[in-house]
Design brief:
Blueprint: E1 4-7, E2 13-16, H1 24-29, E3 32-33, H2 40-46, H3 58-61, E4 70-78, E5 85-90, E6 96-101, E7 104-110, E8 116-119, E9 127-135, H4 138-149, E10 187-192, E11 195-207, E12 210-221, E13 227-233, E14 236-242, E15 246-253, E16 270-278, E17 281-290, E18 295-298, E19 309-312, E20 315-317, E21 319-324, H5 336-348, E22 353-356, H6 365-374, E23 377-381, H7 395-410, E24 416-420, H8 425-431, H9 434-438, H10 445-459, E25 464-466, E26 486-489, H11 491-495, E27 508-512, H12 520-526, H13 537-541, H14 548-557, H15 566-590, E28 597-600, H16 623-631, E29 635-642, E30 645-652, E31 658-668, E32 673-683, E33 688-692, H17 695-698, E34 706-712, E35 715-720, E36 733-741, E37 744-751, E38 755-760, E39 770-771, E40 776-778, E41 783-789, E42 805-806, H18 810-813, E43 817-820
Parallel strand pairs: 21-22, 21-28, 22-23, 23-24, 24-25, 26-27, 36-43
Antiparallel strand pairs: 1-10, 2-3, 2-4, 4-9, 5-8, 5-10, 6-7, 6-9, 11-12, 12-15, 13-14, 13-16, 16-17, 18-19, 19-20, 29-30, 30-33, 31-32, 31-34, 34-35, 36-37, 37-41, 38-40, 38-42, 39-41
Helix pairs in contact: 5-6, 7-10, 15-16
Catalytic activity: Hydrolysis of terminal, non-reducing beta-D-mannose residues in beta-D-mannosides
Keywords: Glycosidase, Hydrolase
EC number: 3.2.1.25
């Protein structure tokens, strides 16, 4: 008799409990339907009792939710089928909760990041039963926990570091303050007899051509009868008899096919089955997909300092990464399809690693399974971020329990190559004045330097560990030293200008970024200010960064004037964000192999907001995503300052040599060639080559009206001697034509002037529209073809309208002059 599972997701209700600010309408409504998995806030929204917290200034109006207790109730039927054990299992409770079965307390939880299992057979009745979950208001609970543990430094306004709840749920410098409660992951009854598989933890390695697999099994027993564990993989079967609670089954898989990350080979996985049998047959079984790969982090000191290099199967992977936050402020709403859309967007930007940031969650099985399947490397922070954390009870045991569970659960995933102790806490202690404020109190060092590395060594030795991000290997310098280990570069966004990224020579960049607004469709869905402006009330609610508006403006004015029109402002800020990050990424890549990777902050948003994200809160691509795609291209041509002049740097992140004639020209803006050079180049696989520019090519006679372009094969690079503000630019003149294409339209644009940063803001035409490229430079006479996909019925000329067709020229020379050919489309279809 195998384990029988019965989900308990239907029929729940929720009602407000204690809380002095509960609206009268909510009190009067009493118990309302509750979705499980779900949250109080989304239940109230579904019942029409609150307005969408993502819109306008509704966040403030829903602040009472985090200060209110709530009670969830379920009535269910149960029949006794003779099982020795019946367990009530919660995969996630958010956060401080008491659980009662038929009035009897069975569980008290204080941790969103853990699952819970309790035996309840003795409490169940044949027929009607009741299940109640009583949630304590999280905001006051966090405050009380801080008083008990002692106040410690943290960012933002709630003491999230005192309670084991998703830190960003209390608000962040990009995140809405939801502070909700709820049964946020599945709940079920599991019935079994004899024994069950409590945990299955594969540990993989390789030995020459063979794969080595140790399957660690933890068994929960209802009796002492002997059981057998059988492991099957790739036609190999091994079994052991088990008398106790733990076993290890070792398997050698001959001539194993390795799992490779994107760009290196196939992410091959093997189906693994683990079966628990007893004297009456199969008791329990698990099915997993695993991959054989080796991973290590190389921090061997060199003449320049201390690198941080990620090697998979002994191949150095230049990390082209993006930071990942929860994709919704209410993570239960993110399903597998949404994860897949977001990961595909990362792939479209040529990203090969996603870093799961430590103020969110231990990501779901769907997220990791998709990354495994697609060869997307992952890095998971332990969930401690931007704060000092007490090392005393009860927090200490909660952190250990959640970490042990997370590592055990995630160990099977070949995509997971880094487990990281914290986000910015090592830097915080050394650089943010914590010691004086702590006055001798603990701050988390035990977790980062003792507990977590010991857990990883015990449970997942095949996954690399770093104590924090940023960190300096060996403690040879302060955290966040560009010469050593990983860095986070935030002084530019906060205090300087983005061309200064070129002053850094970092070994590995784990965070950096620049803000920009969401797409127009997302912005206007979420904010209904009239008039809408950068400082209108709703915009202020949707800008969470400290002095964010001032920093946006300061970061723009050196490059373009600040537009007065709101649509122009959105385009200017989006373009500036893309140019800032693109500049940094191309510079970092030009430093390879000295630099071993860069992880952009951030890929995604959890609500509609002005932020550092490349994909906005409604899932739409901002111009930044296209800048990342260009800078992260497998083959990159970039022009960089070198030794008082300019150089072309060629980066080849493919398995094939890149050979050809490199052509470099200094051009007037009308396309006239003023000076040139050419030569054969041979860029080795995974290699970098630097070619210095001749003085006459690198030096402009009239900087405002000249540029350099370098070409190798189908790839090119541009160097403008003058920024947009100082360039002699005309309004962009473009000839446009539109033709039908599968799933949308094909837009061809031919330039009659120099056009900088040409883009189609297609979301302004159809909210679902996506374009395949953006931020394209054209000389007079050159053309580009864009492919737009949309399911909407849109007039053909819509994608060629002023305001949809945008260029950098617009911001300094005025609106483009567009000549549109008659569309070759059926009326009304695009």
């Amino acid at each position: 008799m195998t384990v029988r599972t019965r989900t308990l997701h239907e029929g729940w209700t929720v009602r407000a409990g204690a809380g002095r600010r509960v609206p009268d309408a909510v009190r009067e409504a009493g118990a309302i339907p509750a979705a499980v998995p779900g949250s109080v806030t989304t239940d109230l929204l579904a019942a029409g009792l609150i307005d969408d917290p993502f819109l306008d200034d509704n966040e403030r109006l829903q602040a009472w939710v985090g200060a209110t207790d709530f009670v969830f109730d379920l009535d269910f039927e149960w029949q006794d089928e003779g099982d020795e054990r019946v367990d009530l299992v919660f995969d996630g409770l958010d956060t401080v909760a008491t659980v009662r079965v038929n009035g009897e307390q069975v569980l008290s939880s204080r941790n969103q990041h853990r699952s819970y299992r309790v035996p309840v057979r003795h409490l169940l009745r044949v027929g009607a039963n009741s299940l109640r979950v009583e949630f304590t208001a999280p905001v006051p609970a966090a405050g009380r926990a801080e008083q008990e543990l002692g106040a410690r430094p943290h960012v933002n306004h709630h003491p999230y570091n005192a309670i084991r709840k998703m830190a960003s749920g209390f608000g962040w410098d990009w995140g809405i303050d939801t502070a909700t409660s709820g049964i946020w992951r599945p709940v079920r009854l599991e019935s079994w007899s004899g024994a069950r598989l409590d945990a299955v933890r594969p540990v993989v390695s390789t030995d020459g051509p063979d794969g080595l697999l140790d399957v660690h099994v933890r068994i929960e027993r209802a009796d002492e009868r002997p059981v057998r564990v059988t492991v099957r993989i790739a036609g190999v079967e091994e079994a052991v008899d088990v008398a106790g609670a733990e076993a290890v089954v070792s398997v050698r898989v001959p001539d194993v096919r390795r799992w490779w990350p994107r760009g290196f080979g196939e992410p091959h996985r093997y189906p693994l089955t683990v079966e628990l049998t007893g004297d009456i047959g199969v008791r329990d079984e698990r099915a997993l997909n695993i991959g054989f790969r080796d991973v290590r982090i190389d921090t061997t000191p060199d003449e320049a300092g201390t690198p941080l290099r990620i090697l998979v199967n002994e191949r150095l992977v230049y990390v082209r990464g993006a930071n990942w936050i929860p994709d919704d402020a209410f993570p239960h709403r993110v399903d597998r399809a949404r994860y897949e859309r977001r990961i595909r967007q990362a792939e479209s930007a040529n990203v090969n690693l996603l870093r799961v940031w430590g103020g969110g969650i231990y990501e779901s099985e769907d997220f990791y399974d998709l990354c495994d399947e697609r060869g997307m490397l992952t890095w998971q922070d332990f969930l401690l971020a931007c704060a000092a954390y007490a090392e005393e009870e009860p927090l200490r045991s909660e952190i250990e329990a959640e970490a042990r569970e997370a590592v055990t659960r995630l160990a099977a995933h070949p995509s997971l190559v880094v487990l990281n102790g914290n986000n910015e806490n090592l830097e915080g202690f050394e650089e943010w004045g914590w010691p004086a404020r702590l006055d001798g109190a603990t701050w988390g060092a035990h977790y980062y330097h003792e507990l977590f590395p010991a857990l990883v060594a015990e449970l997942a030795p095949h996954i690399a560990y770093t104590p924090g991000s940023p960190f300096t290997p060996g403690g040879v310098s302060r955290p966040n030293d560009p010469d050593h280990g990983s860095v986070h570069i935030w002084d530019l966004w906060n205090r300087r200008d983005w061309p200064d990224y070129r002053e850094y020579r970092p070994r590995f960049v784990a965070e950096f970024g620049w803000q920009g607004p969401p797409t127009w469709a997302t912005l206007t869905r979420a904010i209904h200010d009239d008039p809408l402006s950068p400082v209108s009330p709703g915009m202020q609610v949707h800008q969470k960064a400290i002095d964010g508006d001032a920093k946006l403006t300061s970061g723009l004015v050196a490059h373009t004037p600040v537009p007065r029109d709101m649509r122009d402002w959105v385009w200017a800020m989006q373009l500036n964000q893309a140019r800032a990050v693109g500049t940094a990424l191309e510079h970092f890549r030009s430093l390879a192999p000295h630099n071993a990777g860069a992880i952009v902050w951030q890929l995604n948003d959890d609500w509609p907001v002005v932020s550092w994200a490349a994909v906005d809160g409604d899932g739409r691509e901002k111009p930044l995503l296209y800048a990342m795609a260009h800078a992260f291209a497998d083959r990159l041509v970039t022009i960089q300052p070198r030794d008082g002049g300019l150089a072309v740097i060629l980066g080849n992140e493919t398995e094939e040599a890149w050979r050809g004639t490199l052509e470099i020209e200094r051009l007037a803006s009308d396309g006239t060639v003023l000076a040139s050079q050419a030569g054969q180049v041979d860029v080795a696989p995974r290699g970098t080559v630097t070619v210095a520019l001749a003085a006459d090519v690198a030096t402009a006679a009239h900087p405002a009206d000249e540029l350099v372009r370098a070409r190798l094969g189908g790839e090119d690079a541009w160097w403008f001697f003058a920024d947009l503000r100082d360039a002699l630019l005309e309004p962009a003149r473009l000839d446009l034509s539109v033709t039908a294409a599968d799933g949308g339209v094909r837009v061809e644009a031919t330039a009659a002037t120099l056009v900088r940063d040409l883009a189609l803001l297609v979301d302004t035409v159809a909210p679902d529209a996506v374009v395949d490229d953006a931020l394209v430079h054209l000389l007079p006479g050159e053309k580009v073809v864009f492919h737009v996909t949309t399911a909407q019925q849109v007039g053909a000329d819509a994608f060629t309208a002023v305001g949809v067709v945008r260029t950098g020229n617009d911001l300094v020379a005025g609106a483009p002059e567009l000549r549109v050919a008659e569309p070759a489309l059926a009326e009304g279809r695009a």
